[in-house]
Specification:
This protein is mainly α and 764 residues long. It contains 30 helices and 2 strands. It has a two-stranded antiparallel ribbon with strand order 1-2. The radius of gyration is 32 Å and the shape is globular.
Length: 764
């Protein structure tokens, strides 16, 4: 079942018309609709009565609109509905909350603590791709004007001016660093962070140094009041805020590119942060946070309020961000392209925050200052030479294509995107790598022909195809990531998993064979070790793909037809079966539309896939489970023994490779435990389930027809054999229901590779 041959064996009617609208006698529609609905001070007003009156005069399908009202306006309009769901209207509770806001309110330390902690929750939620209007701008202290306030000086409102406003200002300065990164490189609206159309307010008049001085003064002030409730917790908040502000300043792109030690110093500040959420969160202050603040920004599209991240989750997110920033800092210590590949694959798996991804984009845009101190062209040459003994003539032929550097760097940029976009971009980039592989192949032929005039340069047995082998290897890694990335994103329906992992088996098999060929044509200890390391990961994932294919096929026979059991049944079985095949063929073509156009590896046709599925259907269901366990054991052996064969090489590279092995190993062990538990339960060996996949399909058809006849009160005369078959089919269905509802699930576990499904059984 390894290669392609073995697999083959195995609203249009909608119209808007104002011509039928009758204008109310109280005034023209034009005059009523052009009345301003926003007061001069920017507050929204209630137009419910106006809308009700206008709507009551309209015939069905009629519309009253202004001349300049466009489809874009219609798509951006706010539905007028239940006030609790309307994003702009103020409910009675909202109005009461807003009326409590008073910037001159005398705050206690515990009240200032509550505001500071909620502001931190706003900031961390914003880091997780939320809008300013959903988070930071809901804080009235954050958006209030500070002109004329004695900030940092003891005054009649000491807690506000000496403690709270320095925290608020430092938060704004920290967010300014993040916003600058958001605005710099390749962040995509709504996917990464909702930047909106409003002008950010991040206290531009305050520098990092001034904010730090204000925080220090607040720390000294609280030191004199440590015996009071909330003082110690506020002191911890200020200490963390100072370190976070310094860290962001040191980890900004400009500082890291200018000073190699800046990132390390910034990470040191992060490690010293107070990483615990206080038990005492202070005293709630009404009116400080306005969740309907978008009404004050008439130019911004309305946006639904969002739940803020909880306190302990904020601490975890800060710790996670610190680890992600360590990956960014480690780019300056990369010693080979192989190491760089492992680093970006790890970054892709971790799916860091938009701020970290933007920093990565900045590093890639200045890669000659960050990685190995080499130009992008030299980096591409190094990448090829690390895995092949390509002669200068072949490399020169590769660089005849002026896009090769861009294509190579885009490989890393793709992994630095958020997971959904990374997968989409990877699928689109496959065609570019396929074309690059073809051009590199011609460069290899020309180079080999020039060096060996009497030999057949197009014969793979003679020509090592140095550069095109590297391009094919990179393309296969991109293809594997795009295929498996859909699992993490829940792109694939349950019935698609056998198809996906059947094709993944083919891709990993092709990759393993290609690495073996590269190993033969790439002399040198360093190249041998690198190809061995990559080969371990590829061969282990090949066995994992086989196991997942068999397990998902087994349960697809049990799971995928559960929905039709409760759906309307067609009496025309032949037509139903034909339409089902057509739909499956269309879905198959759509799912593999990107890879079907590649020159290599050979794409498995729909008919070939059906033949493979029919071959598997000849096995009993529990036999597929046994074969899957064998494949998982093979993967465990490959990953477990691999470390013993990697005695030499760069330690950092081996460590990065070992991390990748450990994540795969966690998936293998978890699935082995689940399958062993399922095997021990004996559920699959129940008499009703001791059937092949083909028999399972026959059972499905049998009870579907019987259920349809019973529902229609059409009970034909059935023979004794037919009644027996229906009874057996329904018992099979009941056994499947018991298995599916009680015995198996798909989950994720800590430390496992997120792109591989982990099957779980209760108690395992």
């Amino acid at each position: 079942m390894a290669d392609s041959e073995q697999l083959s064996s195995g609203l249009s009617g909608l119209s808007l018309d104002a011509s039928t609208a009758e204008v109310p006698e109280t005034g023209s529609a034009e005059s009523q609709l052009t009345e301003p609905i926003i007061t001069p001070d920017g507050e929204w007003i209630d137009i419910t009565t106006l809308v009700d009156q206008a709507a009551s005069e309209l015939a069905s399908g009629a519309l009253i609109k202004q001349t300049h009202f466009t489809l874009f306006d219609a798509m951006m309009s706010v539905e007028v509905m239940d006030p609790r769901l309307d994003m702009g209207i103020l409910t009675a509770d909202d109005a009461l909350e807003a009326s409590q806001w008073d910037i001159d309110r005398q705050l206690t330390l515990r009240e200032a603590l509550w505001v500071a902690l909620r502001l931190l929750r706003c900031e961390i939620t914003w880091h997780g791709s939320a809008s300013l209007l959903q988070t930071l701008y809901t804080c009235n202290y954050f958006t209030a004007s500070v002109d004329g306030l004695p900030i940092g000086h003891e005054s009649a409102n000491e807690v506000r001016d000496v403690v709270l406003f320095p925290i608020v200002i430092a938060t704004g300065v920290a967010c300014r660093y993040v916003w600058n990164e958001f605005s710099r490189y390749n962040l995509f609206g709504e996917e990464d962070v909702q930047m909106g159309t409003i002008e950010p307010q991040f206290f531009a008049d305050f520098s990092e140094r001034r904010a730090d001085i204000l925080l220090y003064a607040a720390h000294v002030y609280l030191g004199r009041r440590l015996g009071e409730p909330g003082a110690r917790e506020l002191s911890d908040v200020i200490d963390s805020r100072r370190r976070w502000l310094r860290a962001l300043g040191l980890l900004s792109a400009e500082r890291m590119l200018e000073d190699a030690d800046a990132a390390a110093n910034g990470l040191a500040e992060l490690r010293r942060m107070h990483a615990a959420w206080p038990d005492d969160e202070g005293t709630h202050v009404r009116g400080v946070f306005d969740t309907k603040c978008m009404r004050r920004y008439a130019a911004a599209a309305p946006i639904k309020p969002r739940e803020l991240m909880e306190g302990p989750a904020c601490v975890q997110e800060l710790e996670r961000m610190a680890k992600d920033l360590e990956l960014v800092e480690s780019l300056g210590r990369v010693e080979s392209v192989e190491h760089l590949v492992y680093m970006f694959q790890k970054i892709h798996i971790r799916a860091p925050s938009p701020f970290v991804r933007s920093l990565l984009m900045t590093m890639l845009a200045n890669i000659e200052q960050v990685v190995l101190g080499e130009s992008p062209e030299a980096l591409v040459r190094r990448a090829v030479l690390e895995v092949s003994a390509a002669p200068p003539r072949a490399l020169a032929g590769l660089f005849a294509n002026g896009d090769v550097i861009r294509v190579f760097l885009d490989w890393f940029r793709t992994l630095a995107q958020n997971p959904p976009r990374a997968r989409r971009v990877a699928l689109k980039c496959l065609g570019t790598w396929d074309a690059l592989q073809g051009e590199a192949e011609q460069a290899d032929i020309d180079a080999f022909g020039a060096e060996h005039p009497g030999r057949d340069a197009a014969d793979p047995a003679q020509n090592p195809f140095w550069v095109s082998s590297w391009a094919y290897h990179m393309k296969l890694m991109l293809l594997e990531g795009a295929l498996l990335g859909g699992v993490r994103l829940h792109v694939y329906a349950a019935y698609e998993l056998p198809v996906i992992f059947g094709y993944a088996t083919q891709v990993f098999e092709a990759h393993a064979a290609h690495l073996d060929r590269m190993h033969m044509g790439a002399p040198g200890a360093a190249r041998t070790q690198q190809l061995q390391r990559v080969g371990v990961l590829v061969r282990a994932q090949r066995e994992m793909a086989v196991a997942t294919w068999l397990i998902s096929h087994m349960f697809e026979r049990l799971l995928v037809f559960r929905a039709p059991w409760h759906s309307k049944h067609s009496d025309a079985d032949t037509v139903l079966r034909l339409e089902s095949t057509r739909a499956q063929r269309a879905r198959y073509a759509l799912r593999f539309r990107h890879v079907s156009m590649l020159g290599s590896p050979t794409h498995l046709s729909f008919d070939g896939w059906c033949a493979s599925a029919e071959h598997l259907d000849e096995c009993l269901l529990h036999e597929l489970l046994v074969h899957a366990q064998n494949a998982l054991n093979a993967a465990r052996t490959i990953l477990g023994d691999a470390k013993n064969h990697q005695d030499t090489g760069n330690d950092s590279v081996v460590d990065a490779w070992a991390d990748a092995c450990r994540m795969l190993y966690a998936v293998v062990v978890a699935n082995l435990v689940a399958m062993a538990r399922l095997q021990q339960s004996g559920v699959l060996r129940a008499k009703e389930l001791m059937v092949s996949g083909a028999a399972a399909l026959e059972y499905r058809q049998c009870f579907l027809q019987a259920d349809a006849d019973d529902a229609a009160n059409d009970r034909p005369v059935r023979s004794k054999k037919q009644r027996k078959d229906i009874e057996r089919a329904r018992k099979w269905r009941d056994a499947v229901e018991a298995l599916v509802s009680d015995k198996l699930n798909v989950t994720c576990i800590q430390g496992a590779h997120p792109d591989w499904p982990v099957f779980s059984v209760p108690g395992a």
